[in-house]
Design brief:
2 domains; 33% helix; GH
């Protein structure tokens, strides 16, 4: 079990790459390491690193290596996201893919080969660093592939499948044997017309990455202390397992945070504690990487209000109560969770995956089970009678959403 944080620099946010200050980075990393965390996830901004398809800036790559080395000196392992892509409501795409040079991010051969060269270059630069864990293709790149993005790069499921395979192969070419993954926001699991599918998330890459944000309708519907809100991250971890071929495929809770005002700052620590406790009860969880390390400075304009206060630490690197919660969890002795023996059947057809979204019958049934004290997981309806698969996962009982009836206490099996 790994505990880490998504690194948001205290000075300049991710624009710090334009005015890279290694001393400031080191001070940030000291404040992270002091919490007893063991890894960070870092975010090169793609247009700053590859402003032209044929130019990957050597100085930017060198600065990334310096950051990784500084993290390693403090006992922090590092994962690197490359195609930024989309972060905190802003899109960062190089000019050679937009407006007069408008080309599809997922299907244009020149763009894809440019992306592959960039990923391979970063991976190769870091391959010899012992504290480098691996690459993530980019942060929530699926938001470019469909609505509600205002200018999506449309692609089919098959085209996305080829894109994932090509770019993960480029990471492997640069740094063989590392933990190379891809990561999407929860539309992959919830949105019927997303070309990034649950099957792709659970089968491509070294492990499955999930991002849990309760502003997706969960906290709005149920409130900050409700079972669905405090167990949403665990739900995504267990939902992802339905599509995995490996019955014990690792799952990385790569992003999870306490968004105000749905989770007010004075309640962020309690939300953090409940969310972490629920996630730690999931077998095969690789790690939890909290969003994020440091607050966004109020000197920066136009961020959504919730983004400014998501840090475990202030801009002055002072730990908040939620940081102390994660610190205690990171230092606590780990226990291996027991298998989850009850599985809820979910539709294998990605065209109806909205049944798993907030308000859908799968989602509601899952949390009725949790409220009644069960520890459910999920299984595809197409595998519900596959004894070998169920046995490999430790599942002894499969129920369908319509069997999980509402009760005053949350739900029970009929």
């Amino acid at each position: 079990m790994r505990f880490g944080v998504n690194y948001t620099p205290s000075e300049g946010w991710f624009h710090h790459w334009l005015d890279f200050d290694l001393d400031s980075v080191r001070a940030d990393l000291d404040s992270i390491a002091a919490l007893g965390l063991d890894h960070i996830r870092v975010f090169p901004l793609w247009p700053y690193f590859q402003p032209n398809r044929a130019l990957i800036r050597p100085r930017a790559v060198e600065q990334l290596v310096q950051l990784v080395d500084a993290a390693g000196e403090r006992g922090l392992d590092v994962t690197v996201d490359a195609l930024q892509g989309h972060v905190s409501s802003f899109d960062f795409l190089p000019a050679w893919t937009r407006t007069w040079h408008r080309r599809n991010l997922f299907t244009d051969p020149d763009v894809v080969e440019g992306q592959a060269a960039y990923l391979r270059t970063l991976a190769a630069a870091l391959a010899g660093r012992p504290h480098f864990l691996g690459m993530t293709l980019g942060n929530e790149v699926n938001q470019f592939s469909a609505g509600p993005h205002p200018d999506p790069d449309r692609a089919t499921e098959a085209e996305i499948d080829r894109w994932l395979a090509r770019l993960l192969a480029a990471c492997e070419e640069g740094a063989p044997g590392r933990l190379h993954v891809h990561a999407e926001y929860d539309a992959t699991w919830y949105q019927d017309d997303q070309p990034f599918t649950p099957g792709q998330a659970a089968r491509h890459g070294a492990m499955t990455a999930v991002h849990s944000w309760v502003f997706n309708g969960t906290a709005q519907r149920h409130g900050r202390t409700a079972v669905p809100t405090e167990h949403h991250a665990a739900y995504l971890v267990e939902l992802s397992k339905a599509w995995a071929e490996d019955p014990h495929r690792p799952v990385w809770l790569q992003e999870v945070g306490a968004p105000a005002p749905l989770v007010p700052p004075e309640h962020a620590a309690a939300f953090t504690e409940a969310t972490v406790a629920a996630a730690l009860d999931c077998p095969d969880l690789w790690g939890i990487t909290w969003w994020c390390s440091h607050d966004v400075s109020r000197d920066l304009a136009d961020f959504p209000a919730l983004e400014y206060g998501l840090g475990l630490l202030t801009n002055d690197r002072v730990p908040k109560d939620s940081a102390r919660v994660l610190e205690r969890a990171a230092r606590r002795e780990r226990r291996t969770p027991e298998p989850r023996t009850t599985a809820l059947a979910v539709p294998a057809d990605p065209a109806v995956r909205s049944r798993c979204a907030p308000g859908g019958p799968v989602y509601d049934a899952y949390f009725r089970l949790v409220a009644d004290g069960a520890r459910p997981t999920t299984v595809l309806d197409s595998r519900a009678a596959d004894r070998a698969h169920l046995t490999a996962r430790g599942i002894t009982e499969v129920v369908t959403p319509d069997q999980v009836l509402p009760t005053p206490h949350g739900g029970t099996r009929s």
